[in-house]
Amino acid sequence: MSPRVVLLFSGKRKSGKDYLTDHLQQLLKDKCEIIKISAPIKHYWAKQNNLNFNELLSNSDYKELHRLEMIRWSDSIREKDYGYFCRQACKDAKEKPIWIVSDIRRKTDIRWFKDTYKDLVRTIHIEADEETRKSRGFHYKDGVDNVASECDLDDFHDWDLVINNGEGGLKLQDQMDSILALCKNLL
Ligand SMILES: Nc1ncnc2c1ncn2[C@@H]1O[C@H](COP(=O)(O)OP(=O)(O)OP(=O)(O)O)[C@@H](O)[C@H]1O
């Protein structure tokens, strides 16, 4: 069974991608599967460098320590095949009606999903003001925050939904409702 809807989530560091997609998963339970494009990247990186995969996947300082090098290495693979990690992440995903991709970072990620899953795809952009992101642990880092993995979607505006998850944003329940409304005609 292929998914009936594929939700693509993007947003800057500490905008709340994991927070919102984890809550969505709690609502949708076994109807959904969370997919992380970064999972195959972290898997290979951990294997190659003898690191702990689960530590890399979780929201830890460990991840931040290796982020820069993982970006450089994964970019070298993407140059040859932009869909490589998207394809890999989907190959490992369970068969569920709703797929939640929680870490879209590039226009080519969106292109790959739209080419592959066509009109099942919905794009959601999470925004949060810098003060709020800082209060969640964001510190600007050269080579991370000013490169493609963080900035490529700055000039993409064709979102199906934009969610303010910072100052003045909607309550969690309303944020969830706006996401579920996107799936309505597809389930
Ligand atoms: N609406 C919110 N209310 C309270 N806390 C939040 C909210 N959104 C996010 N957070 C908290 O902010 C921190 C960062 O959020 P999260 O890890 O989801 O960001 P992210 O976009 O996935 O970041 P990264 O790109 O670095 O992985 C987490 O501790 C999370 O629990």
TrEMBL record:
Location of the protein in the cell: Cytoplasm, Cytosol
GO biological process: cholesterol biosynthetic process; isopentenyl diphosphate biosynthetic process, mevalonate pathway
Top-rank EC class of the record's enzyme: transferase
EC number: 2.7.4.2
Binding site for ATP: K12, R13, K14, S15, G16, K17, D18, R136, Q175
Molecular function per GO: ATP binding; phosphomevalonate kinase activity
Ligand binding (substrate): N165
InterPro entries in the cross-refs: P-loop_NTPase, Pmev_kin_anim
Chief localization: cytoplasm
Pathway field: Isoprenoid biosynthesis; isopentenyl diphosphate biosynthesis via mevalonate pathway; isopentenyl diphosphate from (R)-mevalonate: step 2/3
Alphabetized UniProt keyword annotations: ATP-binding, Cholesterol biosynthesis, Cholesterol metabolism, Cytoplasm, Kinase, Lipid biosynthesis, Lipid metabolism, Nucleotide-binding, Steroid biosynthesis, Steroid metabolism, Sterol biosynthesis, Sterol metabolism, Transferase
Domain of life: Eukaryota
Cellular component GO terms, alphabetical: cytosol
Keyword ATP-binding carried by entry: yes
Record-given protein name: Phosphomevalonate kinase
Organism: Diatraea saccharalis (sugarcane borer)
